[in-house]
From TrEMBL:
Keywords, alphabetical: Signal
DNA-binding recorded as keyword: no
Source superkingdom: Bacteria
Domain (PBP) ranges: 35-270
Stored InterPro entries: PBP_domain, Phosphate_ABC_transporter
Signal peptide: 1-24
Gene source species: Flavobacterium luminosum
This protein's name: Substrate-binding domain-containing protein
């Protein structure tokens, strides 16, 4: 009988050991370049990440599921341990990352790009310039020159950004609207002259073909920079820091092993991924290299 108990105890010990070891290295369902993984994505930057996913999956035996959510929803899912991969415009606070800290999982944070927050108005509006002081005044409930301010989502990273900028905890209840997506903001502004919409730059640079006609009805507003000039959210102005409303896109990886999250982050931060970002109108974290080919035939003709 003692031998039986001893055999069972040893067997259980091996099971616990291999179970723990397997957890450290991953579930076996995904590796760096193969398998399946779900990534929560801040919906304000979803289009550019969808472009990355398409190219990544075309090159590797990987199946990524991107789930667009508001920043608040993503942070809640991470904090509760429901997901371990996310792409956001900020990192988790110590309190928000408590679940993973208890499991001794340190995040792998990969900077991917710089995103700009754009201001849009109906093309019929003559004034194409805006000062951030006007936005702050509006959010504090003061009078403003525009009739309404339109955000994508009350729980979005964009709303949090401007609440912090204005130093307020709650949004004004008068003439401020929020929808579910950036496309709804663009459509509202296209249909309502006098309103100002706030969206991620990428939603304007790479709209879906069927939505292009709506985007064509709105105009980008120039924003007053610290030096007093008015600038648009172009790559040059965002990269130089002259455009005053930017944020960094980051991949947060709490998998705790070398899985597909690490592979996708490396891809987006690598040469191909950074070229995709460059073409999207955002600013790559690392500027991709430029290959210059000099043909000997041209050299001979010039000599």
């Amino acid at each position: 009988m003692k031998k039986i108990y001893l055999t069972v105890a040893v067997a259980l010990s091996f099971l616990v050991f291999f179970s723990c070891n397997k957890q450290k290295q991953g579930t076996g369902s995904d590796t760096i370049l193969t398998g399946k993984a779900t990534i929560l994505v801040d919906e304000t930057i979803l289009p550019i990440i969808e472009d990355q996913e398409m190219v990544f999956e075309s090159q590797y035996d990987a199946d990524l599921t991107l789930v667009g959510m508001s920043e608040t929803e993503i942070v809640k899912n991470l904090a509760e341990g429901k997901n371990d991969l996310a792409i956001l415009t900020r990192e988790l606070t110590e309190g928000e990352a408590g679940y993973f800290a208890e499991k001794k999982i340190k995040p792998k944070v990969t900077p991917l790009a710089t995103d700009g927050i754009a201001f849009i108005s109906n093309k019929s509006n003559g004034d194409r310039k805006i000062d951030l002081k006007e936005i702050i005044a509006f959010m504090k409930g003061d009078d403003s020159k525009f009739s309404s301010l339109v955000f994508d989502n009350a729980n979005s990273s964009t709303v949090r950004y401007f609440k912090n900028l204005a130093g307020i905890e709650s949004l004004p209840t008068k003439n401020l609207y929020s929808f579910k997506t950036n496309n709804e903001v663009i459509k509202f502004v296209a249909d309502n002259p006098g309103s100002v919409g706030i969206v991620g730059v990428n939603w304007l640079m790479q709209p879906m073909p069927e939505f292009q006609s709506t985007v064509d009805k709105v105009a980008l507003l120039e924003v007053k920079a610290n030096n007093g000039t008015f600038v648009l959210p172009t790559q040059d102005f965002m990269a130089s820091g002259l455009y005053p409303v930017t944020r960094e896109i980051k991949m947060l990886n709490y998998q705790g092993y070398s899985g597909l999250g690490m592979g996708f982050a490396s891809f987006v931060a690598g040469e191909i991924g950074q070229r995709i970002i460059l073409k999207s109108g955002l600013v790559p974290f690392r500027m991709p290299g430029r290959n210059i080919i000099i043909r000997k035939e041209i050299e001979k003709k010039n000599n």
